[in-house]
Amino acid sequence: MSAPPLRDWKARPEGGGFFALWLIFTIARSLGRRVVRPLLWPITAYFLCRRGPERRASRAYLARVLGRPARLMEGARHVHTFASTILDRVFLLGDGFEQYQIDVSGLDELHRLLAKGRGLLLFGSHLGSFDVLRVLALRRPDYLIRVVLDKSQSPALMKLLDALNPTIAASVIDAAQDGPSVALAMKAALDEGALVAMLVDRARPDEPSLPVDFLGGKARFPSIPWLLAASLKVPVALGFGLYRGGNRYDLRFEAFEDEAIQLPRAERATRLAALIARYAGRLETMTRDAPFNWFNFYDFWQADDADSTASLDEAALQRRTLRRRAAADGGGEQQSY
C-alpha cells in the first residue's frame, strides 16, 4: 500500500540539526563553492532515498509541469537544484555575491512603485531562491528592505543563517510573533518607504485559502497576504529569483498592483479569487520557464476545494493566521531537508 500524500508541510521535521548544518556550511566557506558543489550529488541521493514523501511530491509535481511521468534523473535534478540554492545561501548571505552571475530585470518597475512614497509589498514564492532577491541591497543601496519570515519553522538553519549575516537577521520581521505585532511591524516599515518582502504561495492546512487553477489542477493559495495588502493600502510587486545552473541566477521583478488593492466587502470573495488566480497564472508561467526550481515538496494539489475564506472577517483572519504562517519562510522559505 502506498503512503498517504504529504499535505501538512509544517509537520515534516527539519533535516539535520544545527551541528550538521554548521559543519556543512563551514566546510563550504573554508573550501569554496566549486570544491563543495560535487558533494551535493551524494546528498541528493541520500534525501531521495530517505525522504519518501518529498520524493513522491516531487515526481507528482514534475509530471504536471513536464506533461509526462518524470524520469529518475529528473527527480534527482529537482532535489539537486534545491540543494544548490540552499548551499548558495551560505555565500549570498555572507557577502559572496561577486562569484555569481545575476541578471536583473524590472528594477525600474520597483523604483517607479517605491517613488509613490507609500512603501511596497514584494510577493515572492517557493520558486527558486528568495535570498538572491537581497541582491537589491547591493544594486539599490537606497532601498530599505525588510523580509517577513517565520524563524520557528527551521530553527537550526535559521540560527546558522542569522550568524552568517547579523545585519540581515536584524532586519527580519519574525512572523512567529502574534499577528497584530507582525502587522504593526510591517506597517511601520512601509510608512518608512521600505520594500517589505514575503512569500505568498504556501498555505497551512488550517489557514484560509482559495482554490485556483494551477498547472492543470486546483491548488490552494493563501488569502491572508492579499487581505493584508488591501488593509495596508500599498502597491504590490512580484519577485522571482530563478536558479539557472552553475553560478547563474535570473532575478525578475514586475508590477502587480500599481495602487492599493481594493476589496469592498460586497465584492470581496470575487475580487480576492480573481487576484489569487492572476497571481497563480504568473507563478505558473515562471514555473514552466524554470520547472526544476519548484521547492514545495508536499501535496500542493488537494482535493478539498471548499471556500473557507469569504465568510470570515478580514481582521479576524489576520489575527488568527498571520502569526503562524511563514510569509517568507526562510528555512521555511524553502522546506529545509
Q: Could you characterize what this model shows?
A:
There is one protein chain. The chain is an alpha/beta fold and 337 residues long. It has helices spanning 18-31, 33-36, 40-50, 52-66, 72-92, 107-114, 136-139, 155-164, 166-170, 179-191, 224-232, 268-289, 314-321, 330-333, and strands at residues 101-105, 120-124, 145-149, 172-174, 195-199, 209-214, 217-222, 236-243, 248-257. The strands form two sheets. The protein has a seven-stranded mixed beta sheet, sandwiched between helices. The chain is globular. The model is unreliable at 1-5, 13-17, 303-316 and 323-337 (pLDDT under 50).
Q: Total number of β-strand segments? A: 9
Task: Give the number of helices.
Answer: 14
| Rg, Cα atoms, Å | 19 Å
The SSE string, one letter per element, is HHHHHEHEHEHHEHEEEHEEHHH
What's the shape?
Answer: globular
Secondary structural class: alpha/beta
Contiguous low-pLDDT stretches (5 residues minimum) are 1-5, 13-17, 303-316, 323-337
Instruction: Estimate percent helicity.
Output: 40-55%
Read across the widest sheet, the strand sequence of neighbours is 1-9-8-2-5-3-4
Distance between the termini: 25 Å
Mean pLDDT equals: 82
Q: Largest sheet at a glance?
A: 7 strands, mixed
Write the layout of secondary structure elements.
Elements: H1 18-31, H2 33-36, H3 40-50, H4 52-66, H5 72-92, E1 101-105, H6 107-114, E2 120-124, H7 136-139, E3 145-149, H8 155-164, H9 166-170, E4 172-174, H10 179-191, E5 195-199, E6 209-214, E7 217-222, H11 224-232, E8 236-243, E9 248-257, H12 268-289, H13 314-321, H14 330-333
Parallel strand pairs: 1-9, 2-5, 2-8, 3-4, 3-5
Antiparallel strand pairs: 6-7, 8-9
Helix pairs in contact: 1-8, 3-5, 4-5
